[in-house]
Amino acid sequence: MSEKIDELKQTFQEDMDKAQNTEDLENIRVKYLGKKGTITELLKGMRNMQGDERKEAGKRINLLKAQVSESIQERGKQIQKEMEKRLLMADRRVDISLPAGNNIGSLHPITIVQRELEEIFSSMGFAVEDYNEVVTEYQNFEAVNVPKNHPARDMQDTYYLDNGELLKTQTSAAQNYILRKYGAPCRAIFPGRCFRNEALDASHENTFFQMEGMMVDKDISVANLIYFMETMLSEVFQTDITVRLRPGFFPFTEPSFELDIHCPFCGGKGCATCKHGGWIELCPCGMIHPNVLKMGGVDPDKYTGFAFGLGLTRLAMMKFDINDIRVLNSGNLKALDQFTIL
Ligand code: DAH
């Protein structure tokens, strides 16, 4: 009997060593513990035994049965764990059927320039604000001194919602909100997506980005405006930038200016970017109109301020030498991937 048991133990161990999965284990269980299994047969064989021999055999066979069934259970748990681990690994497995390449994505050129500007202005103490794309007529026009029927509205036709609200045509639509939020003194920039009803061509899109900025405090003058614009633009173009102001007109600034920069690409000699004039028209700006301050809850007798509306889209085009504005909204990865800065 003990020989038989030893033999059985050995073959069981060999079978177990070969077991790879739950199916193998189940076969082993049947082989040893099933109705016709070897251990079951041993137990049946006890029928022919008597007295002490029977007692002793019973003990040993039952012990063997317990050991075998425990081993099978333990190995079962182990196999289960291994399978879970393999499944997890499979999740992270490299799919070699995918096309080769460095597909980690890239930032959109406008995002790159926007982040750069945000960093520069933040370092000069400006808050960075976000604002809705759907705004009321009051915010987009009245609050920036463009009353109903003012001719300046003609140039900013946009998309109206059934409830009378509209897609903002200019980041200036947030001026009133910023003034009310911060009061005076305040320094803030607020980049945003703007919309206009435009006939599309290489330089006109119905959806584009601007970055508006405002600084309000006691004794703010045009000199402050020039200083901030020169500092910011020198950072953006990584070279000393000279600006000049020409008179302009905007209902929300008085006086209003068109700010030009001395062309950083040709040093003013004349090139395609500056259309051979040596100067690039870049940023409309001016001293905030007293009506705008008043509507924003700021006393124009105590405070003055400047505002500017930088064409973020134009700036990105210039910086990255993109000559068709439609590329920017195209979602064409081949065109947009090239500007990756990580
Ligand atoms: N909102 C104007 C536009 O879209 C740009 C502008 C001009 C903004 C002068 C300003 C400003 O803040 O002072 O045409």
Structure, explained:
This protein is of the alpha+beta class and 342 residues long. Helices cover 41% and strands 18% of the residues. The strands form two sheets. It has a seven-stranded mixed beta sheet. A two-stranded antiparallel ribbon has the order 2-3. The two termini are 75 Å apart. Bound molecules: 3,4-dihydroxyphenylalanine. 3,4-dihydroxyphenylalanine is lined by residues 170, 172, 212, 250, 253, 284-286, 307-309.
Question: Secondary-structure blueprint of this entry?
Answer:
Blueprint: H1 2-18, H2 22-33, H3 38-45, H4 51-91, H5 109-123, E1 127-128, E2 134-135, H6 137-140, E3 166-167, H7 175-182, E4 186-195, E5 207-217, H8 222-237, E6 243-248, E7 253-262, E8 279-288, H9 290-295, E9 304-311, H10 312-319, H11 333-336
Parallel strand pairs: 1-4
Antiparallel strand pairs: 2-3, 4-5, 5-9, 6-7, 7-8, 8-9
Helix pairs in contact: 1-2, 1-4, 2-4, 5-10
The structure holds 3,4-dihydroxyphenylalanine (DAH).
